[in-house]
């Protein structure tokens, strides 16, 4: 198995960041307009709903794509990498969900959970280790 390196994974994350940001803006705009037309224009409510929507959008995008037959997000597909379990098999939605929310812990500890990818033998971040996953070249 050929493990995907740090910079390849960073590039995939940048692509996914652009995709989720654009998707978030479009969905957020439509959702905001529906809320305003429905009579809610309180900025705190709109911001809170926007934050919740952003969390759900990110989770669904990553968990669905990584547990799909493509085994990766659009960014990962563009870079020719995929997410597998420790034996190289496709992961399920639950494992993909655990991996996604594990990224929060990787980020909260000063991004060390992500930086670990550059230094571990199997190029795993903390979130990969927590979920029992690998990111490999296709």
Structure description:
The protein has one domain (6-137). Helices cover 64% and strands 7% of the residues. The model has no long low-confidence stretch (mean pLDDT 95). The protein starts with 5 loop residues before the first helix and ends with a strand. The chain has a two-stranded antiparallel ribbon with strand order 1-2. The longest helix has 32 residues, at 6-37. α2 crosses α4 (93-108). The protein has 6 helices and 2 strands, in the order αααβαααβ. The protein has helices at 6-37, 43-66, 74-79, 93-108, 112-115, 126-131; strands at residues 81-85, 133-137. The chain has 138 residues and is mainly alpha-helical. It is found in: Cell membrane. It is a multi-pass membrane protein. The chain crosses the membrane at residues 12-37, 44-64, 101-120. Residues 3-132 form the RDD domain. Keywords: Cell membrane, Membrane, Transmembrane, Transmembrane helix.
Question: Gist?
Answer:
This is RDD family protein. This protein is mainly α and 138 residues long.
Q: Strand percentage, roughly?
A: 5-15%
- Rg from alpha-carbon coordinates: 17 Å
Order of helices and strands: HHHEHHHE
Q: Structural class per helix/strand content?
A: mainly alpha
**Strand order across the biggest sheet?**
1-2
Q: What is the CA–CA distance across the termini?
A: 9 Å
Mean of residue pLDDT values: 95
User: Percent helix among the residues?
Assistant: 55-70%
Number of domains: 1
Characterize the biggest β-sheet: 2 strands, antiparallel
SS field, number of helical segments: 6
Which descriptor suits the 3D outline?
elongated
Q: Strand tally, please?
A: 2
Q: Any low-confidence stretches, pLDDT <50, length ≥5?
A: none
Transmembrane segments: 12-37, 44-64, 101-120
Membrane topology: Multi-pass membrane protein
Main location: membrane
Keywords: Cell membrane, Membrane, Transmembrane, Transmembrane helix
């Amino acid at each position: 198995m050929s493990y995907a390196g740090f910079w390849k994974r960073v590039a995939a994350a940048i692509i996914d960041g652009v995709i989720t940001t654009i998707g978030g803006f479009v969905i957020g705009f439509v959702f905001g307009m529906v809320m305003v037309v429905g009579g809610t224009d309180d900025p705190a409510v709109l911001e809170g709903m926007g934050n919740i929507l952003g969390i759900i959008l990110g989770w669904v995008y990553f968990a669905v794509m990584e547990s799909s037959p493509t085994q990766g997000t659009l960014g990962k597909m563009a870079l020719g990498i995929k997410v597998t379990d420790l034996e190289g098999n496709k992961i399920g939605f639950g494992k993909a969900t655990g991996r996604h929310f594990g990224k929060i812990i990787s980020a909260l500890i000063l991004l060390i959970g992500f930086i670990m990818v550059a230094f571990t033998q199997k190029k795993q971040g903390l979130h990969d280790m927590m979920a029992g996953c690998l990111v490999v070249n296709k």
